[in-house]
Every structure is written in structure tokens, then in C-alpha cells.
Amino acid sequence: MSSSLAILLLAATTSVSALNLDINLGLGLQSVPSTYPDFTQCLDQPSVYSCENTTTIENTCCSPTPGGLVLQTQFWSTYTGLERKGQLLPKGSWTIHGLWPDNCDGSFAQYCDASRQYDPAPPTGVEAYTGPGVDTFVRAFGREDLLDFMSKYWINQGASNEAFWAHEFSKHATCTSTFDVACYGPSYKKHQDVVDFFDAVIRAYKQYPTFDMLGSFGIVPSNKTSYSLSHIQKALQSQTGAIPYLGCTHNGTALSEVWYFSHVYGTEQFGTYKTLDSTTASTCSSTEPIWYYERSRGSEHEVRN
């Protein structure tokens, strides 16, 4: 190959590479900004399980305080009420309810920061939010992957998913000290904490694959076969080491939710969850059969790849 031809080929290759780079940048494929907090401030703090400290937590960014009894909560819904709008439930999975920071004595606070209130339908006494949805906050950080997962597994009933996500952040994350704006340091970007909270909720949810845990013990949705409360409790206890709260509707006979209680070693975002027995009595009957109903026809779709 002549030297002049080699130079031409090199120039062409360089031009194509530059063009591909320009195209990628033009398509928004530039790097996604991080949303994690600045926990370097915690390096000199003692690490403990929340609610088990024997001295005062000096820096509440380092351990959820006072909301150190952390609940990862899930729903078993049989319909959404918005099927015609394409809001469907994930086949073969319970759905996310939230991540709650109860106080160590079981009490809890809610809507702790009015400046970060994004709930469009809050309870009386809290001003309703009328701005852009929280999904736009996530998109602003380039996290379509996060929105995709939330849209599959964090499903509302009777209202939009986005309203539900906003409710959970506003009611609970604003009362969780490790999501305080101060924990993100001087480089904090507006709504960074919202994205960080949603990521943390999903990490916690993935620790408790309720549908598969129950299924492995022969407990599957059925309109013909019922189960006992003790059977369901023992199945989940055998895999998590603790008895979660089980919620039932229809006078305590229709399984509808589960709450996994934990103390957290470190932060709620990245710490280790130590599952505990529920501090709340189950609303499911201990004497009547418990029904784990199948989803309504047309209310679920396949989401697992």
C-alpha cells in the first residue's frame, strides 16, 4: 500500500470516528450525571445499625435518624383501574409501595420539608404541588433506565404512577435524614435527592422478591386455593429471617400487601438491611383462609426480559 493511500485511509477513519462522536452527543448519549450523596463526611463517624446506637448520632447524613426503623413495602393489587390507558401490573411480581422511615418506637413523621413537597394530592394541611411531574426530574438527569423500571414495577391504582412516586418521596423521603439536601454537599443539583431516593427504593425492593419467595413454597395466586396466614408467614420468614407485616382486605381474608422491617447499617441508600419481625400486627385473619387472588384479566403484562 502506498504511503499516500494509507494517509487517505487514516484520514477517512478519523473523520468517521469524529462523526460518530458528534452523532452520539447529538443523540444525548453523553455521560449521565451522578446523583449519589457526599458521604465523605461519614468517614470519621462510627458505623452502627440504625436504632441500635448507644450514643447520639452526630451526623444524621450517616445513619437514618430518627427514622431508623426502615420499611420496604409492597402491594399485591389485582387491577389498576387505568388499564385502558396502558397502566398495567407486572406479571410474576408484587409491586413497589415505598421505603418508609419509621421512628424506632414505631411512630412516624410525614411531609417533613415543604420546599420539597411534590405531591399533587397531599392530605389536608399540606399545600398541593402543581408543578412539573417528578418523572421530568428523573429525565433531566438522563435516567430513562430508572423511569423504565419504575414504570414496570412501581404502579399506582386509580391515579397516575407519577403522582404515586411524588407522594412517596414527599411523604417519606423528606423525613429520611440520609436524603437531606445537606447530605449532597456544595455541588448539590436540584432534584438530585429525588432521583437518589428512587434508586434507593428499587435497591431495597430487589432484596425482597416476594412473588418468587412465596412461589417457591407453593404459594401462588389462585382463585381456587387458599392458604393459612402461618403458611405465608413461615415461607417469608424462612428466607428473610423475620416475620413481615402482612396486610389483608375483605375482612382479613384477601392478601394485599407486605412490609419488611429493618434496621440499616450505614445509610438507607447503600447500607446493609437487617430484617426484623414486624412491629405492627397483621390485618390478615389467623383463623380464616387467606386468598391470594389472581390478577384480573387484562390487568397485567409480561415485563421481565
Automatic annotation (TrEMBL):
<dbReference type="InterPro" id="IPR036430">
    <property type="entry name" value="RNase_T2-like_sf"/>
</dbReference>
<feature type="active site">
    <location>
        <position position="97"/>
    </location>
</feature>
<feature type="signal peptide">
    <location>
        <begin position="1"/>
        <end position="18"/>
    </location>
</feature>
<dbReference type="InterPro" id="IPR001568">
    <property type="entry name" value="RNase_T2-like"/>
</dbReference>
<dbReference type="InterPro" id="IPR033130">
    <property type="entry name" value="RNase_T2_His_AS_2"/>
</dbReference>
<protein>
    <recommendedName>
        <fullName>ribonuclease T2</fullName>
        <ecNumber>4.6.1.19</ecNumber>
    </recommendedName>
</protein>
<keyword id="KW-0732">Signal</keyword>
<keyword id="KW-1015">Disulfide bond</keyword>
<dbReference type="GO" id="GO:0003723">
    <property type="term" value="F:RNA binding"/>
</dbReference>
<dbReference type="InterPro" id="IPR033697">
    <property type="entry name" value="Ribonuclease_T2_eukaryotic"/>
</dbReference>
<feature type="active site">
    <location>
        <position position="172"/>
    </location>
</feature>
<feature type="active site">
    <location>
        <position position="168"/>
    </location>
</feature>
<dbReference type="InterPro" id="IPR018188">
    <property type="entry name" value="RNase_T2_His_AS_1"/>
</dbReference>
<dbReference type="GO" id="GO:0006401">
    <property type="term" value="P:RNA catabolic process"/>
</dbReference>
<dbReference type="GO" id="GO:0005576">
    <property type="term" value="C:extracellular region"/>
</dbReference>
<dbReference type="Pfam" id="PF00445">
    <property type="entry name" value="Ribonuclease_T2"/>
</dbReference>
<dbReference type="GO" id="GO:0033897">
    <property type="term" value="F:ribonuclease T2 activity"/>
</dbReference>
<comment type="similarity">
    <text>Belongs to the RNase T2 family.</text>
</comment>
